[in-house]
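Researcher: I'm preparing a figure for a lab meeting and need a structural model of a single chain. I don't have an experimental structure, so a prediction will have to do for now. The sequence is pasted below. Please return the structure as tokens so I can convert it later.
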Amino acid sequence: MKFENIFGHEDIRTQFDELIKNKRFPHAIILCGEDGIGKSVIAREIASKILNKSEIREYADLIEWKILNDKKSISVDQVRKIIEEVNKKPYEGNNKIIVVHDMDSMTIQGQNAFLKTIEEPPVGVYIILLCKSQNRVLDTVKSRCQIYKLNRLNEDEIRKFIDIKYNITNEDEIRTLLAFSDGIPGKVDEFLNDKDLKEIRNIVINAILNIKNLNPKKIIECANKLSEYKKLWHEICNYFILYIRDALIYKETGNKDLLINLDKIDDVKKVASQFSMKQLNKMVEAVNYGQLNLETNVNMPLTYVEMLFKIQEV
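Model: Understood. Here is the structure written out token by token.
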């Protein structure tokens, strides 16, 4: 990837360029921002420039560490391996960059084991820690790093991203992507490329459209189907809310330009015609209740069953 193909974060990237140019880049930094905001890309850009490379790709002295596939966190054992890598000499030049993804998922024991290395890495070694939230990163770790927060892209930046990467020109489709991205380019990629998310959207809208005709067996089947997407429960609830929200707005204003699901406008109109404002607001309450239970790890299939029955009863 060429540096000019990176979208947004101009101010912070310029700041990094100046630090690298003047050989004042910190030995350890934390890049904080939501998933899909561009942390990994910015980290690789920093690494490429420190290594005096002209583009972003794999390099021998750019080492990235992620949570192992069968694990939920970065353990002390994995941290020990990271520390071993930190202390190895660079392969090609005088510099080496260690990028640790999901730092906020590193165990407390792991963070404590990593402290000394973060504070005093070998000369020429730069450590970049990526996290979604600083809340789960120890204060002792944060105090040893420079912290930089990546903000959401503005509409013009997201439009440019959509245009250059996907060459989409249909304004209704662009506006749908703008709404779902909420300033996060990675969400555009997910919306267009993630088959699971496409399937979930279809399940959700079909459930809302047909909820009055679903017998208990069908509701349980729908709940079980949704439960197959265990890690996407937040997206499932969000899709319910967004469809109902669009139906409320269309019912009140009749203005499709205010809708998010413009690619599903016919379905939104059907929902708006089937339910009253009071019923739609009750649906929102049912989904919010379901989301609250999911956040507190209540049984997932049971939560979806209860939520769907509440929607049916409005």
